Inverse folding.
């Protein structure tokens, strides 16, 4: 029997696989996913949008600047030609005075990061706009072997990745376990014995869906997810807002 619902544990497992699995050398690299984080952490301070901090008169965050000659006359990125790209030459330079990032930046690219940048340039150095400016495109639903396990298109995406990694899905959990996971996920509280009994004895085909709708309508749902924002703002750490320190607290802190 196919599992009616995917547990949080399974979803986290798939996410961990996606993060930990290394891309193959032939795989196309994404600027947003693979390249931009490297450049942002190591290069954008001197070659980014801040004109006051910019050096060499070129930017690496936009292709219009990265693919034109800089102050030295060299072209930072030549699409498809890493050997002719000044970026690749500088990040692989053996002389510390030529190597980027500079020594005084206290940053150093790893061998994997260097290989990623070289591979991206070799693949054409394709830039991407921020994801919020890219219209969403519905992907094709992947083909899977164990189609009886799936119920929804989302299940097919999860199972396709599991089959690719040679991992078999867990067996369907019992109703008590499913209900406990649902309560903890949505409202952060376990179900009462009465609520468990009601769900176990509910033999309707939409028993689980009714539980979901009930919890989404519960005030505890808002409390559960609103708490994350309150924690981020350090709510109740002070007299009101995080910066609102009373004079007594400030004097005590300075003493």
């Amino acid at each position: 029997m196919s599992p009616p619902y995917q547990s949080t544990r399974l979803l986290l497992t798939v996410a961990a696989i996606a993060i930990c699995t290394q891309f193959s050398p032939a795989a196309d690299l994404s600027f947003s996913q693979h390249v931009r984080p490297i450049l942002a952490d190591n290069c954008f301070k001197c070659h980014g949008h801040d004109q006051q901090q910019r050096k060499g008169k070129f930017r690496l965050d936009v292709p219009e600047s990265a693919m034109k000659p800089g102050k030295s006359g060299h072209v930072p990125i030549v699409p498809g030609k890493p050997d002719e790209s000044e970026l690749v030459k500088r990040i692989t330079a053996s002389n510390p005075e030529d190597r980027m990032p500079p020594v005084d930046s206290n940053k150093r690219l790893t061998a994997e990061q260097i290989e990623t940048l070289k591979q991206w340039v070799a693949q054409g150095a394709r830039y991407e706009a921020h994801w919020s400016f890219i219209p969403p495109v519905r992907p094709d639903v992947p083909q899977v072997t164990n189609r009886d396990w799936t119920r929804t298109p989302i299940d097919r995406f999860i199972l396709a990745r599991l089959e690719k990694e040679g991992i078999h899905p867990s067996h369907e959990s019992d109703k008590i376990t499913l209900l406990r996971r649902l309560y903890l996920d949505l409202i952060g509280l376990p179900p009462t014995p009465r609520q468990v009994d009601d769900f176990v004895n509910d033999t309707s085909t939409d028993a689980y869906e009714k539980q979901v709708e009930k919890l989404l309508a519960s005030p505890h749902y808002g409390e559960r997810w609103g708490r994350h924002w309150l924690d981020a703002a350090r709510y109740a750490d002070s007299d009101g807002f995080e910066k609102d320190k009373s004079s007594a607290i400030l004097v005590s802190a300075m003493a």
In short: The chain has twelve helices and no strands. Residues 175-217 form one domain.
